[in-house]
Amino acid sequence: MTQVNLLQLSKAYSSADTYAVHNLTLEIASGQITALLGPSGCGKTTTLKMIAGLLRPTQGDITFDGQSVLGIPAERRGAVMVFQNYLLFPYMSVGENVGFGLKMRGVDQQTIRRKVAEILDLVKLSGFEDRRPKQLSGGQQQRVALARALIVEPKVLLLDEPLSNLDAHLRDEMRELILNIQRQLRITTIFVTHDQEEAVVLADKIALMFDGELQQFDRPNAFYKRPISVRAARFFGGVNFVDGVKRGERVETPLGIFHVNRQEIPDGPVVITIRPENLKLGEEGENAIQGRIRSHVYLGTHARFKVEAGQWHLEVVAEASSVEQFHDGEILSLKFPRENIWLVPTEK
Ligand SMILES: Nc1ncnc2c1ncn2[C@@H]1O[C@H](COP(=O)(O)OP(=O)(O)O)[C@@H](O)[C@H]1O
Ligand SMILES: [Mg+2]
User: Fold this and answer.
1) Euclidean distance between CA atoms 61 and 236, whole angstroms
2) How far does residue 45's CA lie from ligand 2's centre (Å)?
3) Distance from the alpha carbon of residue 223 to the mean position of ligand 2, in angstroms
4) Which domains does the chain carry?
5) Most-buried pick from 84, 88, 237, 280 (CB within 10 A)?
């Protein structure tokens, strides 16, 4: 079990460059799965490589269980990285690929063979020892790469976009496999993804990064319920934002006054956010406004409506049968239940 701390970690690839990672401070709990999530180029792989010891930070520190690891070279650090494109040795068999780390450590042949068999069983590739990487599917190569990393019993497992090169069906399988293995071994796991859904289903905690900086570090559901900014909310599929001015538990907006629950955000300009599934079409009462249905799509299990209110276009997710009840062009009431309203600061 290893806790990983990043302390004001920064990386600039050259002195002329802007920071690829800037002032990143994170406490990554022992034995959990943490996702580094963010759009392409936000510094996720750079962060992972610094933890692995493959890149030297420009500033800041990395500790494993409170001890700085910056002076420890990659091969002795105990953090192994599985790359996005697997990087298997093409001329080695699967068995040789997986056993490589043990061979480098001078472990005897018999032990290597036994451990390779064990670990291949764990990744569900028993009997594949003699194949070459090119005789495997992408998903299988991915599992070989994972086995190769796990066999050295690392303290920290680092996975770079583990699911993004796989098609949807294999992705589900791999997701299950990673979760199962992680639960069995309880190895501190950090994985990188640009896909919010992948982060939500796999991670205990998510570090959302934009432009090399940490935006929010939280449990998955917090990004839906309590996003820290409009940008964070948008990254998690948030679409409804109404500008207003907060005074205590009231927010004045061009759509009317909304009553909100107490929240730690200063009075003044704010943005009201609410998830599409929490807006109530056709309901009256507190925080109900008038809107006109612009369009809708029927999605079998539910329906999605676009509702125009003043200068805003709001999206509402409602139950499937609501398409029989509500019609395009109709003007009706739309309720913002106070417990589902979340306020974020206005972006500069
Ligand atoms: N070897 C490198 N030399 C210079 N700049 C790099 C290098 N690798 C990555 N970068 C830059 O650093 C930033 C972060 O990259 P990266 O960590 O790969 O992002 P992500 O993995 O989130 O897509 C990007 O602007 C990228 O262009
Ligand atoms: Mg990357």
Assistant:
1) 30
2) 4
3) 22
4) 4-225 (3.40.50.300), 239-345 (2.40.50.100)
5) 88
Rounded Cα distance between 296 and 16, Å, is 50
The residue contributing the CA closest to ligand 1 atom 4 is 13
Q: State whether the beta carbon of 40 lies less than 6 angstroms from ligand 1.
A: yes
What separation in Å is there between the alpha carbon of 19 and the centre of ligand 1? 9
Q: Over 80: is that where the pLDDT of 342 sits?
A: yes
Vertex 124 angle, CA 123 and 130, to 5°? 95
Q: How confident is the model at residue 93 (pLDDT cuts 50, 70, 90)?
A: very high
pLDDT attached to residue 166: 83
| pTM for the structure as a whole | 0.92
The H or E element spanning position 101 is helix 94-104
Contact (CB, 8 A) for 304 and 296: yes
Is residue 241 predicted with pLDDT exceeding 80? Answer: yes
- By C-alpha distance, which of 83, 342, 37 is closest to 200? 37
Position of tokens 């004045």? Answer: 252
Identity at 191, one-letter amino acid code:
F
C-alpha 345/C-alpha 332 separation (Å) is: 29
Nearest-angstrom CA–CA distance, 222 and 25: 19
Determine whether the shortest distance from the Cβ of 184 to ligand 1 is under 6 A.
no
What integer pLDDT is reported at residue 170 of this predicted model? 84
Coil, helix or strand at residue 191: strand
Binding site membership of 49 for ligand 1 (Cβ less than 6 Å):
no
pLDDT band at 240, cuts 50/70/90? very high
What separation in Å is there between the alpha carbon of 344 and the centre of ligand 1? 30
Ligand 1 site, residue 50, Cβ cutoff 6 A: no
pLDDT at 321 over 80: yes
